[in-house]
Design brief:
Number of helices of chain A: 12
Distance between the termini of chain A: 55 Å
Shape of chain A: globular
Strand content of chain A: 15-25%
Protein name (chain A): Xanthine dehydrogenase
Keywords (chain A): FAD, Flavoprotein
CATH topology of one domain in chain A: Enolase-like, domain 1
Shape of chain B: globular
Number of strands of chain B: 5
Oligomer: heterodimer
InterPro entries (chain A): CO_DH_flav_C, CO_DH_flav_C_dom_sf, Diverse_Substr_Oxidored, FAD-bd_PCMH, FAD-bd_PCMH-like_sf, FAD-bd_PCMH_sub1, FAD-bd_PCMH_sub2, Mopterin_DH_FAD-bd
Structural class of chain A: alpha+beta
Helix content of chain A: 25-40%
Bound molecules: flavin-adenine dinucleotide, iron/sulfur cluster, FE2/S2 (inorganic) cluster
CATH class of one domain in chain A: Alpha Beta
Order of helices and strands of chain B: EEHEEEHHHH
Strand order of the largest sheet of chain B: 2-1-5-3-4
Number of helices of chain B: 5
Largest sheet of chain B: 5 strands, mixed
Radius of gyration of chain B: 16 Å
Largest interface: A-B, 35 and 36 residues
CATH architecture of the largest domain in chain B: Orthogonal Bundle
Organism (chain A): Croceibacterium mercuriale
Helix content of chain B: 25-40%
Pfam families (chain A): CO_deh_flav_C, FAD_binding_5
CATH class of the largest domain in chain B: Mainly Alpha
Largest sheet of chain A: 5 strands, antiparallel
CATH superfamily of the largest domain in chain B: [2Fe-2S]-binding domain
Radius of gyration of chain A: 20 Å
CATH topology of the largest domain in chain B: DNA polymerase, domain 1
Number of strands of chain A: 11
Chain lengths: ~325, ~170
């Protein structure tokens, strides 16, 4: 690990100043320290934000819930209101990592976790995300865990997390504080970026910005589920995952909010698919149409070709379950 | 900066790069906590911080300022084993023993989580009371790998220790 200066900010303003000057925030440390040991990350100053007042889960004025950026993944999944009103979020968190890791991992850090691409985490390999311009080792190389949607010629990495996929299905917002003390909110659905020509940028955070909370809208109700397919049944990242919030209206689908993990550089969502399903009677024919639309532009890279049929099957299984089992 | 380890105050003045794991082993001579992967992937380094199990390889000692750490050295003694330790011995819950301190600390943390009603990935009901079936234990202990494959005996040991505790409490 490269040497760094360890700093504790006096408050959020101070943290913002330090970060604007190029320092890096550390929360749970479970991703950043891992990558610092590999020298994939080498910040020269580390700002320990753990003593800032960014904790707590509290109701919002409009009937939603505000989850502080430092709330651990364990605490979020254990919160009674989250379990009752936002079960897809609790389920997605419980599907990720382990209890030990979730006891440290935070809401803000989880959103900002970096890709698990093998070339990104190996400093002897070319990687445009780690070192812009050095090339992409995964294109034409080992790419079993890589993207089938939204990739670019520069980068085919996936966003690896589970929690954010549920947040995307729930239409949650990310609350961000700027270094000048003002704040902005960004929908989780647009917080992560596609790689394009600048794969070094994972998300829309700008220099000096800190995530202060995630805001959930009022409970959506309906049937909520998180289906994760992985190489072993515990303690593994998703190959493909689906977060679904489906409301039935009699025997038709009232609305279906869907988000997908493991497919792209961000939790994937496709409003066309959601529109196609709304107002329709559930059937396998309909679900196949939804999968056709979702996967219209899907492109395998070789080792990850299997993700295309796997996504179809995972979507079908999720929709059958969420709509009460269409044949 | 200071942290409490197994009830004793320890001063930390080292390089900020020092992980909690390295501080425990090299700075405090508490070598019961093991280093397997150093990347959060094996659980050998599991300790309790303020009562919660964590991977001590993925946190810095300096970040734990003011916190209370419990390692395997703080759980039971050779003459008075913790019920979990005794059950591991009875059930051959280990072969080489390398993963065992992490397994025991992890199991301690798991029992507290279950008592608090925390659900897991395999729980049917997110809100109900937690019954630690073998399936639940396997899922909740999946962060602790055992290269010797003592898994089934580990599950048996934990199950027995848990039942003994219940009987003791009743
Ligand atoms: C072995 C292993 C298995 C895992 N399996 C899974 C899995 O199956 N599913 C899954 O979803 N995750 C998994 N994870 C990843 C884990 O969920 C993340 O490491 C964790 O959520 C990151 O949170 P943290 O608080 O520890 O972040 P940190 O490591 O502290 O920070 C991560 C990044 O976020 C930035 N950051 C932190 N807080 C803020 C903030 N408030 N504002 C702005 N930037 C911030 C940091 O600068 C850093 O770049 C796994 C991790 C490991 C080690
Ligand atoms: S896929 Fe992206 S992260 Fe992986 S090697 Fe290519 S540029 Fe780097
Ligand atoms: S040494 Fe910490 S998890 Fe392996
Ligand atoms: S007993 Fe040898 S690794 Fe578990």
């Amino acid at each position: 690990m490269r040497p760094f200066q360890y700093m504790r900010p006096e408050g959020l303003d101070h943290a913002g100043q330090l970060l604007r000057d190029g320092a890096r925030p550390i929360a749970g440390g479970t991703n950043l320290l891992d990558l610092m040991k590999l020298e994939v990350e080498a910040p020269d100053r580390l700002v320990d934000i753990n003593r800032l007042p960014l904790g707590g889960i509290a109701p919002t004025d409009d009937g939603g819930v505000r989850i502080g950026a430092l709330v651990t993944n364990s605490a979020c999944a254990a919160d009674l209101q989250i379990r009752r009103d936002y079960p897809v979020l609790a389920r997605a968190i419980l599907a990720g990592a382990t209890f030990q890791l979730r006891n440290m991992a935070t809401t803000g850090g989880n959103l900002c976790q970096r890709t698990r691409c093998y070339y990104f985490t190996n400093i002897d390999q070319p990687c445009n995300k780690r070192q812009p311009g050095s090339g992409c080792g995964a294109i034409g190389g080992h790419n079993r865990i890589h993207a089938i949607l939204g990739a670019s010629d520069a980068c085919i990495a996936t966003y690896p997390g589970d929690m954010a996929v549920a947040l995307a299905a729930l239409h949650a917002d990310v609350e961000i504080e700027r270094p000048d003390g003002t704040s902005r909110t960004v929908p989780v659905r647009t917080f992560h970026r596609l790689p394009g020509d600048t794969p070094d940028l994972d998300n829309v955070l700008e220099a000096g910005e800190v995530i202060t909370a995630v805001i959930l809208p009022p409970p959506a109700g309906g049937t909520q589920l998180y289906r994760k397919v992985r190489d072993r049944s515990s303690y593994a990242f998703a190959l493909v995952s689906v977060a679904a919030v489906v409301r039935m209206d009699g025997d038709t689908i009232g609305s279906a909010a869907l988000a997908f993990g493991g497919l792209a550089h961000k939790p994937w969502h496709d409003p066309r698919v959601e529109q196609l399903l709304a107002g329709q009677r559930p059937s396998d024919a309909l679900f196949h149409q939804a999968a056709d639309l979702l996967l219209e532009d899907a492109e395998g890279q070789g080792e990850n070709d299997f993700k295309i049929p796997l996504t179809r099957r995972t979507l079908l299984a999720s929709l059958r379950e969420a709509t009460g089992g269409a044949a | 900066m200071q942290l409490t380890i197994n009830g004793t105050a320890h001063e930390f003045t080292g390089d900020p790069r020092t992980s909690l794991l390295d501080f425990l082993r090299d700075g405090c001579g508490l070598t019961g906590t093991k280093k397997g992967c150093d990347h959060g992937q094996c659980g050998a380094c599991t300790v309790l911080v303020n009562g919660q199990r964590v991977n001590s390889c993925l946190t810095l000692a300096i970040m734990q300022d003011g916190h209370a750490v419990t390692t395997i050295e703080g759980i039971g003694t050779p003459d008075a084993l913790d019920p979990l330790q005794a059950a591991f011995v009875r059930h051959d819950g280990y072969q080489c023993g390398y993963c065992t301190p992490g397994q025991i600390c992890s199991a301690k943390g798991m029992l507290a989580e279950a008592a608090n009603g925390w659900a897991s990935f395999v729980s049917d009901n997110l809100e109900g009371q937690v019954e630690l079936s073998a399936e639940e234990i396997r899922e909740r202990m999946s962060g602790n790998l055992c290269r010797c494959g003592a898994y089934s005996n580990i599950v048996d040991a934990i199950t027995e220790a848990m039942q003994a505790e219940k009987v003791g409490a009743a």
